[in-house]
Amino acid sequence: MKQNNYGEMIFNDNDVADLLMQGREVNSLNGMLVDSTVNIEKIVEFVEDFPNNFVCYNFVDNQLIPDWDHVKQQNWHMPQEYKDMDIAQYILDLCENETELQRCGEELLLYQERDLFNLLKFLKYLVDIMRANCVIWGVGRGSSVSSFILYKMGVHRINSMFYKLNINEFLR
């Protein structure tokens, strides 16, 4: 097993075989990063009912960060109802006045330009899960507190409009 430039663990054929021999379910290996030279089907020949939907990401050592980031952003693990939601409309519905609508509209355009709507959907899911399970999380941290949208969604508790924080501090 080795680590790539992004801190992720890259498994080789011996690592995958060891995990399977230790009783790990094949489905639990979905999404793991595996060296592209590994033939997963060959390793798990002895496993009954090998699932057709088993997916391992091939490790590419020279992959550019934007490409790597784009691939990762397409793979959010959340219920379908969150993937299908109109996050922009949800956020605009949270606004209480015209000033808030304008700020959220400006921020939504910036999120959309950066293809971050899936991130907002996941954060909505995360906040809902934390609230449902009575998980306590921090007041806010770092540049994220400059996003009024994240404040309205409940990700943090710092009203960036009240403190006149510039959204560009978050999205630079």
Task: Walk me through the structure.
With 172 residues, the chain is α/β, with parallel strands linked by helices. It has two domains: 2-73, no CATH class; 80-169, no CATH class. Helix content is 42%, strand content 6%. It has eight helices and four strands, in the order E-E-H-E-H-E-H-H-H-H-H-H. A four-stranded mixed beta sheet has the order 1-2-3-4. The longest helix has 16 residues, at 98-113. The chain is elongated, with a radius of gyration of 20 Å. Mean pLDDT is 80; it is low at 46-61.
Features:
172 residues, alpha/beta, 2 domains, 4-stranded mixed beta sheet, 4 strands, 6% strand, elongated
What's the arrangement of secondary structure elements?
Blueprint: E1 2-3, E2 9-11, H1 13-21, E3 33-35, H2 40-43, E4 57-59, H3 65-73, H4 80-84, H5 87-94, H6 98-113, H7 117-132, H8 148-153
Parallel strand pairs: 2-3, 3-4
Antiparallel strand pairs: 1-2
Brief description of this entry?
The protein contains 8 helices and 4 strands, in the order ββαβαβαααααα. The protein is of the alpha/beta class.
| Ends apart, CA distance between termini | 34 Å
Helicity range: 40-55%
Q: Uncertain spans, ≥5 residues at pLDDT below 50? A: 46-61
Structural class call reads alpha/beta
